[in-house]
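[Solved] Which block belongs to which protein?

Original post:
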Amino acid sequence: QVQLVESGGGLAQAGGSLRLSCAASGRIFSSYSMGWFRQAPGKEREFVASIRWSGGSSTHYVDSVKGRFTISSDNAKNTVYLQMNSLKPEDTAVYYCAAQIYYRSSYYPWMETTYDYWGQGTQVTVSS
Protein backbone atom coordinates (compact mmCIF):
# COMPACT_ATOMS: atom_id res chain seq x y z
CA GLN A 1 0.00 0.00 0.00
CA VAL A 2 1.20 3.48 -0.85
CA GLN A 3 0.09 6.63 0.88
CA LEU A 4 0.35 10.07 -0.66
CA VAL A 5 -0.17 13.14 1.50
CA GLU A 6 -0.40 16.60 0.01
CA SER A 7 0.31 19.77 1.95
CA GLY A 8 1.02 23.42 1.33
CA GLY A 9 -2.34 24.51 0.02
CA GLY A 10 -4.10 27.59 1.27
CA LEU A 11 -5.16 31.07 0.33
CA ALA A 12 -3.03 33.30 -1.88
CA GLN A 13 -3.55 36.56 -3.68
CA ALA A 14 -3.34 36.82 -7.43
CA GLY A 15 0.30 37.15 -8.40
CA GLY A 16 1.42 35.32 -5.29
CA SER A 17 3.07 31.96 -4.79
CA LEU A 18 2.47 28.67 -3.03
CA ARG A 19 4.48 25.48 -2.87
CA LEU A 20 2.66 22.18 -2.65
CA SER A 21 4.32 19.06 -1.30
CA CYS A 22 3.38 15.44 -1.82
CA ALA A 23 5.00 12.98 0.57
CA ALA A 24 4.91 9.31 -0.39
CA SER A 25 5.13 6.51 2.14
CA GLY A 26 4.40 2.84 2.41
CA ARG A 27 5.42 0.12 -0.02
CA ILE A 28 7.13 2.45 -2.42
CA PHE A 29 10.52 1.24 -3.55
CA SER A 30 10.58 3.21 -6.73
CA SER A 31 8.10 5.02 -8.84
CA TYR A 32 8.15 5.66 -12.56
CA SER A 33 6.50 9.03 -12.41
CA MET A 34 4.39 11.35 -10.29
CA GLY A 35 1.89 13.92 -11.30
CA TRP A 36 -0.23 16.78 -10.07
CA PHE A 37 -3.86 17.20 -11.08
CA ARG A 38 -6.47 19.72 -10.02
CA GLN A 39 -10.22 19.96 -9.88
CA ALA A 40 -12.04 23.26 -9.79
CA PRO A 41 -15.65 23.50 -8.58
CA GLY A 42 -18.03 22.18 -11.20
CA LYS A 43 -15.22 21.02 -13.48
CA GLU A 44 -13.52 17.75 -14.25
CA ARG A 45 -10.15 16.96 -12.80
CA GLU A 46 -7.36 18.09 -15.10
CA PHE A 47 -3.68 17.37 -15.49
CA VAL A 48 -1.29 20.05 -14.24
CA ALA A 49 2.26 18.68 -14.24
CA SER A 50 4.26 15.48 -14.08
CA ILE A 51 7.78 14.29 -13.54
CA ARG A 52 9.18 11.02 -14.83
CA TRP A 53 12.38 9.29 -13.78
CA SER A 54 12.44 6.18 -15.95
CA GLY A 55 14.11 6.57 -19.33
CA GLY A 56 15.72 9.81 -18.20
CA SER A 57 14.10 12.58 -16.20
CA SER A 58 11.39 14.56 -17.95
CA THR A 59 8.64 16.95 -16.98
CA HIS A 60 5.35 17.88 -18.59
CA TYR A 61 2.97 20.76 -17.95
CA VAL A 62 -0.45 21.78 -19.09
CA ASP A 63 -0.18 24.89 -21.27
CA SER A 64 -2.02 27.09 -18.79
CA VAL A 65 0.71 26.73 -16.14
CA LYS A 66 3.84 26.66 -18.29
CA GLY A 67 6.30 29.28 -17.14
CA ARG A 68 4.49 29.69 -13.81
CA PHE A 69 4.56 26.26 -12.16
CA THR A 70 7.55 24.00 -11.60
CA ILE A 71 7.47 20.36 -10.55
CA SER A 72 10.47 18.92 -8.76
CA SER A 73 11.35 16.05 -6.49
CA ASP A 74 13.50 15.07 -3.57
CA ASN A 75 13.89 11.35 -4.03
CA ALA A 76 15.66 10.91 -0.71
CA LYS A 77 12.51 12.19 0.97
CA ASN A 78 10.07 10.51 -1.43
CA THR A 79 8.55 13.94 -1.91
CA VAL A 80 7.40 15.79 -4.99
CA TYR A 81 6.83 19.53 -5.04
CA LEU A 82 4.78 21.90 -7.15
CA GLN A 83 6.05 25.46 -6.99
CA MET A 84 3.27 27.75 -8.14
CA ASN A 85 4.15 31.34 -9.00
CA SER A 86 2.16 34.17 -10.54
CA LEU A 87 -1.02 32.57 -9.31
CA LYS A 88 -4.30 33.44 -10.95
CA PRO A 89 -7.88 33.12 -9.66
CA GLU A 90 -8.42 30.39 -12.24
CA ASP A 91 -5.80 28.29 -10.45
CA THR A 92 -8.28 27.86 -7.62
CA ALA A 93 -8.92 24.15 -7.22
CA VAL A 94 -8.28 21.09 -5.14
CA TYR A 95 -4.83 19.82 -6.09
CA TYR A 96 -4.09 16.10 -6.09
CA CYS A 97 -0.82 14.29 -6.42
CA ALA A 98 -0.60 10.87 -8.00
CA ALA A 99 2.06 8.20 -8.32
CA GLN A 100 2.78 5.70 -11.05
CA ILE A 101 4.19 2.62 -9.33
CA TYR A 102 3.66 -0.05 -11.95
CA TYR A 103 5.26 -0.21 -15.37
CA ARG A 104 3.29 0.68 -18.43
CA SER A 105 4.49 0.23 -21.99
CA SER A 106 3.22 3.68 -22.97
CA TYR A 107 3.45 6.88 -21.01
CA TYR A 108 0.69 9.47 -21.13
CA PRO A 109 1.28 11.79 -18.16
CA TRP A 110 -1.94 13.72 -18.71
CA MET A 111 -4.11 10.65 -18.31
CA GLU A 112 -5.39 9.69 -14.88
CA THR A 113 -5.11 6.01 -15.76
CA THR A 114 -1.32 6.41 -15.85
CA TYR A 115 -1.27 6.65 -12.08
CA ASP A 116 -1.82 3.96 -9.48
CA TYR A 117 -2.19 5.90 -6.24
CA TRP A 118 -3.74 9.24 -5.39
CA GLY A 119 -3.63 11.61 -2.48
CA GLN A 120 -6.64 13.16 -0.80
CA GLY A 121 -6.01 16.61 -2.21
CA THR A 122 -5.22 20.05 -0.86
CA GLN A 123 -7.26 23.18 -1.47
CA VAL A 124 -5.69 26.14 -3.24
CA THR A 125 -7.68 29.35 -3.35
CA VAL A 126 -6.44 32.39 -5.24
CA SER A 127 -8.19 35.68 -4.62
CA SER A 128 -8.27 38.51 -7.13
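(Second protein starts here: sequence line, then its C-alpha coordinates.)
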Amino acid sequence: QVQLVESGGGLVQAGGSLRLSCAASGTIFGFNTMGWYRQAPGKQRELVATATSNGRTTYADSVKGRFTISRDNAKNTVYLQMNSMKPDDTADYYCNLRLVNTEYWGKGTLVTVSS
Protein backbone atom coordinates (compact mmCIF):
# COMPACT_ATOMS: atom_id res chain seq x y z
CA GLN A 1 0.00 0.00 0.00
CA VAL A 2 1.34 3.41 -0.98
CA GLN A 3 0.74 6.49 1.14
CA LEU A 4 1.27 10.06 -0.02
CA VAL A 5 2.16 12.76 2.48
CA GLU A 6 2.04 16.40 1.41
CA SER A 7 3.75 19.32 3.12
CA GLY A 8 4.51 22.96 2.48
CA GLY A 9 1.09 24.59 2.35
CA GLY A 10 0.28 27.78 4.16
CA LEU A 11 -0.56 31.45 3.83
CA VAL A 12 1.27 33.69 1.39
CA GLN A 13 0.71 37.16 0.00
CA ALA A 14 -0.07 37.72 -3.65
CA GLY A 15 3.16 37.72 -5.62
CA GLY A 16 4.85 35.43 -3.15
CA SER A 17 6.10 31.85 -3.40
CA LEU A 18 5.51 28.49 -1.78
CA ARG A 19 6.98 25.05 -2.34
CA LEU A 20 4.90 21.93 -1.88
CA SER A 21 6.39 18.49 -1.34
CA CYS A 22 4.81 15.06 -1.56
CA ALA A 23 6.58 11.91 -0.47
CA ALA A 24 5.30 8.48 -1.42
CA SER A 25 5.94 5.67 1.01
CA GLY A 26 6.63 2.16 -0.15
CA THR A 27 8.27 0.90 -3.31
CA ILE A 28 7.03 2.07 -6.67
CA PHE A 29 7.82 -0.05 -9.70
CA GLY A 30 7.57 0.85 -13.34
CA PHE A 31 6.31 3.83 -15.25
CA ASN A 32 4.24 6.22 -13.16
CA THR A 33 2.97 9.75 -13.02
CA MET A 34 3.04 11.99 -9.97
CA GLY A 35 1.21 15.23 -9.94
CA TRP A 36 -0.67 17.96 -8.17
CA TYR A 37 -4.34 18.79 -8.33
CA ARG A 38 -6.24 21.49 -6.51
CA GLN A 39 -9.78 22.16 -5.40
CA ALA A 40 -11.05 25.59 -4.49
CA PRO A 41 -14.22 26.04 -2.40
CA GLY A 42 -17.30 25.36 -4.52
CA LYS A 43 -15.27 24.20 -7.50
CA GLN A 44 -14.27 20.87 -8.99
CA ARG A 45 -10.84 19.41 -8.49
CA GLU A 46 -8.54 20.41 -11.34
CA LEU A 47 -5.15 19.39 -12.60
CA VAL A 48 -2.27 21.71 -11.76
CA ALA A 49 0.79 19.84 -13.03
CA THR A 50 2.08 16.31 -13.58
CA ALA A 51 5.48 14.72 -14.08
CA THR A 52 6.10 11.24 -15.38
CA SER A 53 8.86 8.96 -14.16
CA ASN A 54 10.66 9.47 -17.48
CA GLY A 55 10.64 13.25 -17.17
CA ARG A 56 7.63 14.50 -19.13
CA THR A 57 5.73 17.37 -17.52
CA THR A 58 2.35 18.97 -18.12
CA TYR A 59 0.81 22.13 -16.70
CA ALA A 60 -2.57 23.75 -16.52
CA ASP A 61 -2.66 26.91 -18.62
CA SER A 62 -3.45 28.94 -15.52
CA VAL A 63 -0.10 28.10 -13.89
CA LYS A 64 2.25 27.92 -16.89
CA GLY A 65 5.26 30.16 -16.37
CA ARG A 66 4.58 30.49 -12.64
CA PHE A 67 4.64 26.94 -11.25
CA THR A 68 7.31 24.29 -11.74
CA ILE A 69 6.89 20.61 -10.99
CA SER A 70 9.89 18.39 -10.33
CA ARG A 71 10.51 14.99 -8.85
CA ASP A 72 13.21 12.96 -7.21
CA ASN A 73 12.61 9.37 -8.31
CA ALA A 74 15.14 8.00 -5.83
CA LYS A 75 13.11 9.51 -2.99
CA ASN A 76 9.67 8.95 -4.57
CA THR A 77 9.03 12.64 -4.00
CA VAL A 78 7.41 15.27 -6.16
CA TYR A 79 7.66 19.02 -5.65
CA LEU A 80 5.66 21.99 -6.81
CA GLN A 81 7.40 25.35 -6.78
CA MET A 82 4.78 28.08 -6.94
CA ASN A 83 5.88 31.62 -7.79
CA SER A 84 4.03 34.85 -8.55
CA MET A 85 1.07 33.48 -6.70
CA LYS A 86 -2.40 34.93 -7.10
CA PRO A 87 -5.51 34.85 -4.89
CA ASP A 88 -7.06 32.50 -7.49
CA ASP A 89 -4.41 29.93 -6.53
CA THR A 90 -6.11 29.55 -3.14
CA ALA A 91 -7.20 25.91 -2.81
CA ASP A 92 -6.57 22.57 -1.22
CA TYR A 93 -3.70 20.99 -3.12
CA TYR A 94 -3.65 17.22 -3.51
CA CYS A 95 -0.80 14.97 -4.50
CA ASN A 96 -1.56 12.14 -6.91
CA LEU A 97 0.34 9.03 -7.93
CA ARG A 98 -0.92 7.16 -10.97
CA LEU A 99 0.29 3.66 -11.75
CA VAL A 100 -0.77 1.36 -14.55
CA ASN A 101 -3.79 -0.06 -12.75
CA THR A 102 -4.41 2.20 -9.80
CA GLU A 103 -3.86 5.62 -8.33
CA TYR A 104 -3.35 7.12 -4.91
CA TRP A 105 -4.21 10.48 -3.39
CA GLY A 106 -2.78 12.45 -0.54
CA LYS A 107 -5.00 14.09 2.07
CA GLY A 108 -4.29 17.56 0.77
CA THR A 109 -2.59 20.69 1.99
CA LEU A 110 -4.23 24.10 2.13
CA VAL A 111 -2.72 27.01 0.24
CA THR A 112 -4.12 30.47 0.86
CA VAL A 113 -3.03 33.51 -1.14
CA SER A 114 -4.03 36.85 0.33
CA SER A 115 -4.54 39.93 -1.84
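Accepted answer:
You had them paired correctly. Confirming on the second one: The chain has no helices and eleven strands.
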